[in-house]
Design brief:
By secondary structure, the chain is α+β, with helices and mostly antiparallel strands. The protein has ten helices and twelve strands. The strands form two sheets. Strands 1, 2, 3, 4, 5, 6, 7 and 8 form an eight-stranded mixed sheet that branches.
Protein backbone atom coordinates (compact mmCIF):
# COMPACT_ATOMS: atom_id res chain seq x y z
CA UNK A 1 0.00 0.00 0.00
CA UNK A 2 1.24 3.47 -0.82
CA UNK A 3 2.05 5.29 2.41
CA UNK A 4 3.04 8.73 1.12
CA UNK A 5 3.18 10.88 -1.97
CA UNK A 6 6.45 10.95 -3.89
CA UNK A 7 9.02 13.14 -2.14
CA UNK A 8 9.50 15.30 -5.21
CA UNK A 9 5.77 15.96 -5.41
CA UNK A 10 5.59 16.85 -1.74
CA UNK A 11 8.58 19.20 -2.01
CA UNK A 12 6.99 20.95 -4.98
CA UNK A 13 3.66 21.34 -3.19
CA UNK A 14 5.24 22.64 0.01
CA UNK A 15 7.34 25.12 -1.96
CA UNK A 16 4.27 26.74 -3.52
CA UNK A 17 1.51 27.74 -1.09
CA UNK A 18 -1.00 28.21 -3.91
CA UNK A 19 -0.45 24.63 -5.08
CA UNK A 20 -0.84 23.38 -1.52
CA UNK A 21 -4.14 25.20 -1.06
CA UNK A 22 -5.44 23.90 -4.39
CA UNK A 23 -4.50 20.36 -3.39
CA UNK A 24 -6.27 20.65 -0.05
CA UNK A 25 -9.40 22.00 -1.75
CA UNK A 26 -9.35 19.07 -4.17
CA UNK A 27 -8.66 16.38 -1.58
CA UNK A 28 -11.22 17.73 0.91
CA UNK A 29 -14.07 18.05 -1.59
CA UNK A 30 -17.33 17.68 0.36
CA UNK A 31 -18.10 14.13 -0.77
CA UNK A 32 -18.80 12.92 2.79
CA UNK A 33 -21.36 15.63 3.57
CA UNK A 34 -24.97 14.51 3.74
CA UNK A 35 -28.03 16.03 5.37
CA UNK A 36 -28.40 12.89 7.51
CA UNK A 37 -25.08 13.77 9.18
CA UNK A 38 -26.42 17.23 9.94
CA UNK A 39 -29.50 15.80 11.62
CA UNK A 40 -27.32 13.66 13.89
CA UNK A 41 -25.28 16.74 14.83
CA UNK A 42 -28.26 18.75 16.03
CA UNK A 43 -29.13 15.93 18.42
CA UNK A 44 -25.58 16.02 19.86
CA UNK A 45 -25.13 19.80 19.94
CA UNK A 46 -24.33 19.96 23.67
CA UNK A 47 -21.47 17.47 23.32
CA UNK A 48 -20.05 18.74 20.02
CA UNK A 49 -17.19 21.12 19.29
CA UNK A 50 -15.77 22.80 16.21
CA UNK A 51 -12.02 23.26 15.76
CA UNK A 52 -9.86 24.88 13.10
CA UNK A 53 -6.91 23.06 11.54
CA UNK A 54 -4.95 26.24 10.80
CA UNK A 55 -2.24 26.36 8.15
CA UNK A 56 -0.18 29.13 6.62
CA UNK A 57 3.23 30.73 6.00
CA UNK A 58 4.87 33.65 7.79
CA UNK A 59 2.34 33.42 10.61
CA UNK A 60 4.03 34.92 13.63
CA UNK A 61 7.36 36.44 14.59
CA UNK A 62 8.04 33.30 16.63
CA UNK A 63 6.50 30.90 14.12
CA UNK A 64 7.13 29.59 10.62
CA UNK A 65 8.33 32.20 8.15
CA UNK A 66 9.21 30.52 4.88
CA UNK A 67 7.26 27.27 4.70
CA UNK A 68 3.74 25.97 5.35
CA UNK A 69 3.06 25.26 9.00
CA UNK A 70 0.35 23.90 11.23
CA UNK A 71 -0.64 26.25 14.07
CA UNK A 72 -1.71 24.69 17.37
CA UNK A 73 -2.42 25.90 20.89
CA UNK A 74 -0.79 24.44 23.98
CA UNK A 75 -3.50 24.23 26.62
CA UNK A 76 -2.86 26.10 29.88
CA UNK A 77 -2.95 24.60 33.36
CA UNK A 78 -6.32 26.25 34.00
CA UNK A 79 -8.22 24.00 31.60
CA UNK A 80 -8.79 20.28 31.18
CA UNK A 81 -6.16 18.32 29.24
CA UNK A 82 -3.55 20.89 30.28
CA UNK A 83 -0.28 20.76 28.38
CA UNK A 84 -1.81 19.09 25.33
CA UNK A 85 -1.49 20.52 21.85
CA UNK A 86 -4.87 21.23 20.31
CA UNK A 87 -6.54 22.99 17.42
CA UNK A 88 -8.29 26.23 18.45
CA UNK A 89 -12.05 25.90 18.82
CA UNK A 90 -14.86 25.04 21.19
CA UNK A 91 -18.59 24.60 21.61
CA UNK A 92 -21.39 26.44 19.83
CA UNK A 93 -22.60 29.67 21.41
CA UNK A 94 -26.34 29.45 20.72
CA UNK A 95 -27.04 33.19 20.46
CA UNK A 96 -23.99 34.59 18.70
CA UNK A 97 -22.80 31.82 16.39
CA UNK A 98 -25.99 31.48 14.27
CA UNK A 99 -25.76 35.21 13.53
CA UNK A 100 -22.09 34.91 12.59
CA UNK A 101 -22.88 31.85 10.47
CA UNK A 102 -25.30 33.80 8.28
CA UNK A 103 -22.70 36.52 7.76
CA UNK A 104 -20.02 34.07 6.55
CA UNK A 105 -21.76 33.61 3.19
CA UNK A 106 -21.66 37.33 2.37
CA UNK A 107 -19.40 38.31 -0.57
CA UNK A 108 -15.72 38.22 0.31
CA UNK A 109 -16.18 36.17 3.50
CA UNK A 110 -14.85 32.61 4.01
CA UNK A 111 -17.86 30.55 2.90
CA UNK A 112 -18.66 32.75 -0.09
CA UNK A 113 -15.09 32.21 -1.32
CA UNK A 114 -15.25 28.42 -0.89
CA UNK A 115 -15.86 26.91 -4.38
CA UNK A 116 -18.24 24.21 -3.10
CA UNK A 117 -20.51 26.52 -1.10
CA UNK A 118 -23.15 27.32 -3.73
CA UNK A 119 -23.62 23.66 -4.67
CA UNK A 120 -23.85 22.60 -1.03
CA UNK A 121 -26.54 25.19 -0.29
CA UNK A 122 -28.59 23.90 -3.22
CA UNK A 123 -28.22 20.17 -2.71
CA UNK A 124 -27.62 19.80 1.05
CA UNK A 125 -29.20 22.84 2.74
CA UNK A 126 -29.20 21.36 6.25
CA UNK A 127 -25.55 20.43 5.95
CA UNK A 128 -24.76 23.89 4.62
CA UNK A 129 -26.40 25.40 7.67
CA UNK A 130 -24.42 23.09 9.92
CA UNK A 131 -21.13 23.86 8.18
CA UNK A 132 -21.73 27.60 8.49
CA UNK A 133 -22.45 27.23 12.20
CA UNK A 134 -19.34 25.10 12.80
CA UNK A 135 -17.13 27.54 10.93
CA UNK A 136 -18.61 30.48 12.82
CA UNK A 137 -17.91 28.70 16.11
CA UNK A 138 -14.36 27.81 15.14
CA UNK A 139 -13.56 31.35 14.00
CA UNK A 140 -15.12 32.97 17.08
CA UNK A 141 -13.32 30.61 19.46
CA UNK A 142 -10.02 31.16 17.63
CA UNK A 143 -10.44 34.92 18.00
CA UNK A 144 -11.08 34.48 21.73
CA UNK A 145 -8.23 32.02 22.31
CA UNK A 146 -5.47 33.53 20.16
CA UNK A 147 -6.82 36.69 18.49
CA UNK A 148 -6.95 35.08 15.06
CA UNK A 149 -8.33 37.55 12.52
CA UNK A 150 -11.31 35.69 10.96
CA UNK A 151 -11.23 37.89 7.85
CA UNK A 152 -7.75 36.58 7.07
CA UNK A 153 -8.77 32.90 6.99
CA UNK A 154 -9.53 31.02 3.77
CA UNK A 155 -11.77 28.01 4.34
CA UNK A 156 -10.45 24.92 2.52
CA UNK A 157 -12.76 22.11 3.62
CA UNK A 158 -13.80 19.82 6.44
CA UNK A 159 -12.54 16.54 7.90
CA UNK A 160 -14.71 13.75 9.32
CA UNK A 161 -15.75 14.14 12.95
CA UNK A 162 -13.49 12.75 15.68
CA UNK A 163 -14.81 11.36 18.98
CA UNK A 164 -12.85 11.93 22.18
CA UNK A 165 -12.02 8.83 24.24
CA UNK A 166 -11.57 10.31 27.71
CA UNK A 167 -14.45 12.79 27.51
CA UNK A 168 -17.95 12.70 26.04
CA UNK A 169 -17.42 15.00 23.07
CA UNK A 170 -17.40 14.91 19.26
CA UNK A 171 -14.99 17.24 17.44
CA UNK A 172 -15.70 18.63 13.96
CA UNK A 173 -12.42 19.77 12.31
CA UNK A 174 -12.41 22.46 9.62
CA UNK A 175 -9.29 23.35 7.63
CA UNK A 176 -8.34 26.99 7.09
CA UNK A 177 -5.45 28.86 5.50
CA UNK A 178 -4.11 32.04 7.09
CA UNK A 179 -3.30 34.32 4.18
CA UNK A 180 -1.41 37.06 6.02
CA UNK A 181 1.13 37.13 8.85
CA UNK A 182 -0.56 37.61 12.21
CA UNK A 183 0.60 38.27 15.74
CA UNK A 184 -1.26 35.84 17.96
CA UNK A 185 -2.17 36.77 21.53
CA UNK A 186 -3.06 33.75 23.72
CA UNK A 187 -5.82 34.12 26.30
CA UNK A 188 -6.02 32.38 29.70
CA UNK A 189 -6.90 29.03 28.11
CA UNK A 190 -3.69 28.92 26.05
CA UNK A 191 -0.16 28.66 27.42
CA UNK A 192 1.55 29.27 24.08
CA UNK A 193 1.17 29.02 20.30
CA UNK A 194 3.11 26.24 18.56
CA UNK A 195 4.02 26.37 14.86
CA UNK A 196 4.95 23.01 13.31
CA UNK A 197 6.23 22.85 9.71
CA UNK A 198 4.25 20.40 7.59
CA UNK A 199 7.58 19.04 6.38
CA UNK A 200 8.32 17.87 9.93
CA UNK A 201 4.91 16.21 10.24
CA UNK A 202 5.65 14.29 7.05
CA UNK A 203 8.94 12.93 8.45
CA UNK A 204 8.42 9.36 9.81
CA UNK A 205 11.42 9.81 12.12
CA UNK A 206 9.47 12.21 14.35
CA UNK A 207 6.86 9.63 15.38
CA UNK A 208 7.19 7.82 18.72
CA UNK A 209 5.37 5.66 21.25
CA UNK A 210 3.60 7.71 23.93
CA UNK A 211 3.26 5.76 27.18
CA UNK A 212 0.59 7.30 29.37
CA UNK A 213 0.82 6.45 33.07
CA UNK A 214 -2.39 6.96 35.03
CA UNK A 215 -2.13 8.41 38.54
CA UNK A 216 -3.56 5.97 41.13
CA UNK A 217 -5.96 8.71 42.32
CA UNK A 218 -7.85 8.67 39.02
CA UNK A 219 -7.54 5.01 38.06
CA UNK A 220 -11.18 4.46 38.98
CA UNK A 221 -12.22 6.66 36.03
CA UNK A 222 -9.45 5.68 33.60
CA UNK A 223 -8.66 2.10 32.68
CA UNK A 224 -6.14 0.51 32.16
CA UNK A 225 -3.47 2.21 34.34
CA UNK A 226 -0.89 2.30 31.53
CA UNK A 227 -1.59 2.79 27.82
CA UNK A 228 0.54 3.25 24.71
CA UNK A 229 -0.39 5.64 21.88
CA UNK A 230 1.21 6.85 18.68
CA UNK A 231 2.55 10.39 18.98
CA UNK A 232 4.54 13.03 17.13
CA UNK A 233 7.47 14.75 18.84
CA UNK A 234 8.55 18.28 17.91
CA UNK A 235 11.46 20.35 19.22
CA UNK A 236 10.18 23.94 19.36
CA UNK A 237 13.14 25.98 20.54
CA UNK A 238 13.66 25.11 24.20
CA UNK A 239 10.36 23.23 24.32
CA UNK A 240 9.65 19.63 23.36
CA UNK A 241 6.03 19.24 22.31
CA UNK A 242 4.10 15.96 22.16
CA UNK A 243 1.19 15.70 19.75
CA UNK A 244 -1.10 12.78 20.62
CA UNK A 245 -4.72 11.83 21.22
CA UNK A 246 -7.63 13.31 19.29
CA UNK A 247 -5.55 16.14 17.79
CA UNK A 248 -2.97 13.61 16.60
CA UNK A 249 -5.74 11.60 14.91
CA UNK A 250 -7.19 14.72 13.28
CA UNK A 251 -3.83 15.87 11.95
CA UNK A 252 -2.72 12.45 10.69
CA UNK A 253 -6.09 12.06 8.93
CA UNK A 254 -5.44 15.42 7.25
CA UNK A 255 -1.96 14.24 6.19
CA UNK A 256 -3.43 11.00 4.84
CA UNK A 257 -6.05 12.78 2.77
CA UNK A 258 -3.79 15.51 1.39
CA UNK A 259 -0.41 13.76 1.11
CA UNK A 260 -1.28 10.03 1.23
CA UNK A 261 0.92 9.90 4.33
CA UNK A 262 0.48 7.42 7.17
CA UNK A 263 2.53 7.47 10.39
CA UNK A 264 4.91 4.54 10.83
CA UNK A 265 4.31 1.64 13.18
CA UNK A 266 5.60 2.96 16.51
CA UNK A 267 5.54 -0.36 18.41
CA UNK A 268 9.34 -0.57 18.24
CA UNK A 269 10.01 3.17 18.57
CA UNK A 270 11.42 4.76 21.76
CA UNK A 271 8.91 5.48 24.52
CA UNK A 272 7.91 9.03 25.48
CA UNK A 273 6.39 9.03 29.00
CA UNK A 274 3.33 11.03 30.06
CA UNK A 275 1.14 11.31 33.16
CA UNK A 276 -2.63 11.45 33.39
CA UNK A 277 -3.67 12.87 36.75
CA UNK A 278 -6.52 14.85 38.33
CA UNK A 279 -5.10 18.17 37.12
CA UNK A 280 -5.09 16.87 33.56
CA UNK A 281 -8.68 15.70 33.79
CA UNK A 282 -10.06 18.78 35.58
CA UNK A 283 -7.62 21.68 35.22
CA UNK A 284 -6.41 23.77 38.16
CA UNK A 285 -7.76 26.94 39.71
CA UNK A 286 -5.84 30.16 39.78
Amino acid sequence: MKTSAAKGDVDAILAHPDLLQDRILQRLAPCHFEDSCAEAFWKQLKTSSSVLVLLGCGLDKNGCKDEPCLILNRRSRRVRQSGDLCCPGGTVERRMDPLLARALSLPGLPLARWPHWAAMRRHCPRTARLLALLLATGLRESWEEMRLNPLGVRFLGALPAERLRLFVRVIHPLVGWIGRPQRFVPNWEVERIVSIPLRQLLNPGHYYRYRLYVDPEVQETVDPPTQDFSCFLYQDGAHVEVLWGATFRIITLFLAKVFDFSPPDVSTRPVVPGLLDAAYLNGTKG
